[in-house]
Amino acid sequence: MIDNNYFLIITFLLCVGTLLIRGSFIAFSEKMNLSPRVRELFTYIPAAIFPALFVPATFFHQGIVEAISGKERFLVLIASSILCYFVRKTIVVIGFGMLLLYFVTAQ
Amino acid sequence: MLYKVKMKFFKMGFISVIPIVSGIIPFGAVVGSAFSETGLKFWQAMLMDWALYAGAAQLASANLMKMNAAIFVIVITGLIINSRFLLYSAAMAPYLKSASPLTKFLCAFCLTDQSYATMNANQHKFHSDKDATDFYLGTAVCMQMVWHTSVLMGYIFGNFAPARISLDFAIALSFAALLIPTLKSKNHKFVALFSSVLSLLLYELPLRTGLMVTALISIALAWFIINRRRNHDRQ
User: Fold this and answer.
1) Positive or negative, the Cα torsion across A91, A94, A98, A101?
2) Which domain, by its residues, includes B130?
3) Quick one: average pLDDT of B110-114?
4) Could you tell me if residue B21 is inside a domain?
5) Is B102 an 8 Å CB contact of chain A?
6) Does residue B176 lie in a domain region?
7) Do A76 and B39 touch (CB under 8 A)?
């Protein structure tokens, strides 16, 4: 069992800290006068962060298909990304990727 | 003052995030079962889940608590993992300029990778900042419902998601599907490619700092590209 005081201090500090991070810019949004350059910079946030969220987790995942050195998830991700470039429907891409991975690993 | 939600955009947001949430079910189950294995009591698990609402930080904290790590180590680790929300907060701020403090609080509290990504991918559909806020709140409600249910189920039943289906892979697929439509110019594509390669090179950095370091260097690259192009246009 985890000690109550130990748990409560950690949870309190984490919650307050995370809320401060999440709310930092939002809280002062009405005072923010953004230049066109900064506004344009915000359009790059998905390109800067999202690949770092999913590319390493997929690339370094230890797969089971020996013929492709266990890199089936990474290859399926590339195939799904190519499909997404043309289709641009989230549900189609997820469905395609999940099915493809299922069939690739079923061998 | 009560905030009046435009149901059209709220529903649109709620529905848009449904394909994405399939990926967070197994993650929620893992977090819930980790809470249980750590020895957290039911009320402790639910309190941390509802008050913190940040999966990766919850998982890391549970593992460190199990090892009886020092309080500051756990808190710093969790905050470093959550530091990416700073960039989302900056990107969300222009939409919330005229929102009430309560709406701002709700939007900040519910800020997640998935909610921000879904809103960002659909921004061409909004006519005003309020439409964007309503849409975002719709995604947030759907995310909250699925996430907390998954954690609860994981706590009670353990990791219930069948490994054979690889449901966790849906997270990677959903981020790819949300990212690609936002890569509208060659420069955006270049920054995404740069971030992908750099994140692989920095993967071994401790405390998952590779994520934030990659994000900051990629943002710096984007800033450099923007300035160079604008200066070039001026000449």
Assistant:
1) positive
2) 7-169
3) 94
4) yes
5) no
6) no
7) no
Instruction: Write phi, then psi, for A17 (nearest 5 degrees).
Output: -60, -45
Lowest mean pLDDT among A20-34, B37-51, B74-88, B161-175: B161-175
How many CA atoms within 13 Å lie on the side-chain side of A101?
Answer: 29
Helical segments of B17-69, H only = 18-21, 24-38, 42-52, 55-66
Contact yes or no for B113/A53 (Cβ under 8 A): yes
DSSP state of A68: G
Residues B139 and B225 in one domain: no
Least Cα distance to A26 among B132, B109, B30, B161 occurs for B109
In the block, tokens 């993992």 appear at: B81
Q: Is A15 on the interface with B (CB under 8 A)?
A: yes
Q: CA-CA distance, B141 to B144, in Å (whole number)? A: 5
How many domains does the structure of chain B reveal?
2
Q: Which one of B123, B173, B195, B224 makes the best mutation probe of the A interface by having the most chain A beta carbons within 10 Å? A: B173
Answer whether residue B134 shows pLDDT above 90: yes
Return the amino acid letter for B187.
Answer: N
Residues B201 and B161 in one domain: no
CA A73/CA A91 separation, integer angstroms: 18
**Torsion angle (degrees, nearest 10) of CA B57, B63, B67, B70:** 0
Domain membership flag for residue B123: yes
Q: What is the pLDDT of residues B182-234, one digit of tens each?
A: 898 999 999 999 999 999 999 999 877 888 899 999 999 999 999 999 888 88
